[in-house]
Amino acid sequence: MKAGSAVNDDREYLPLPLLSQAGYCLRRAALLLNERIWEESADTAKGRAEHERVHTQRIERRGKQLKLYEYPVFSEKLGLNGKCDCIEAEASETGCKIPSADFAVELYPVEYKHGLVRQEEEYEIQLCAQAMCLEEMYGAKIREGAIFYITSHKRQAVTLTPELRSKVQETADILRKIRDNAKIPPAKYSPKCKRCSIREYCLPKTKQSAQNYCKQLEQDAREEVKL
């Protein structure tokens, strides 16, 4: 496929934001992917509202600098597609060519998140996946991107290391297996569950209790056989 051409509609791509969900909780990502479960919470509603206020698909130009908002991206190698919140493109002799500019540019993806600045690996994985999509589409070389926290109006630079790129590939592979096998990983209760918008569907404590109960029944049955 040539850079910038349409995505092959015959292939079922994974939604790129699902990588971030998997980093937060693999079971949550599986429920979203295989059972299409979603429930709005105060946190998700706030995040969605903040995104809507700052995002519409558009291009802003200032001399040899461009900002591309809600920019569609995809990767044949990773089997992903989605959108970049923002791509900052600046003229560079060693850059790549994109349809929106008649000069070579260096690309710098920026992912928008609500809340205060914090270290979240799942955000970095999502950002790196966007960069890898752009590299494949345009033959670009992207060494760094940033996460912009809307509430605090601060950005956090992220170096796109080989280790981070490997995590992108690994996460995409895991999600594809989950989709192809139509399975949902078992629940593992943690403090994150308290803020999860789909905890009423997941029921992490109930699932774990039921699992423990079944294990106890199995153990009792084995002991009965020994007697």
> Helix amount, in percent?
40-55%
Alpha carbon gyration radius = 21 Å
User: Main β-sheet: number of strands, strand sense, barrel status?
Assistant: 7 strands, mixed
- Strand percentage, roughly? 15-25%
**Which structural class do you get from the secondary structure elements?**
alpha/beta
Basic shape: elongated
Kindly report how far apart the N and C termini lie. 66 Å
Uncertain residue ranges? 1-10, 39-49
Number of DSSP strand runs: 7
List the helices and strands and how they pair.
Layout (H helix, E strand, L loop, with lengths): L13 E2 L2 H7 L1 H9 L7 H13 L3 E5 L2 E11 L4 E17 L8 E9 L7 H18 L5 E6 L4 E6 L2 H20 L17 H4 L1 H23 L1
Helix pairs in contact: 1-2, 1-4, 1-5, 4-5
How would you characterize the overall build of this protein?
- Mean pLDDT is 82; it is low at 1-10 and 39-49.
- This protein is elongated.
- The chain has 227 residues and is α/β, with parallel strands linked by helices.
- Strands 1, 2, 3, 4, 5, 6 and 7 form a 7-stranded mixed sheet that branches.
- The longest helix has 23 residues, at 204-226.
- The protein is 41% helix and 25% strand.
- Strand 5 (105-113), helix 4 and strand 6 form a beta-alpha-beta unit.
- It has helices at 18-24, 26-34, 42-54, 121-138, 162-181, 199-202, 204-226; strands at residues 14-15, 58-62, 65-75, 80-96, 105-113, 144-149, 154-159.
- The protein contains 7 helices and 7 strands, in the order E-H-H-H-E-E-E-E-H-E-E-H-H-H.
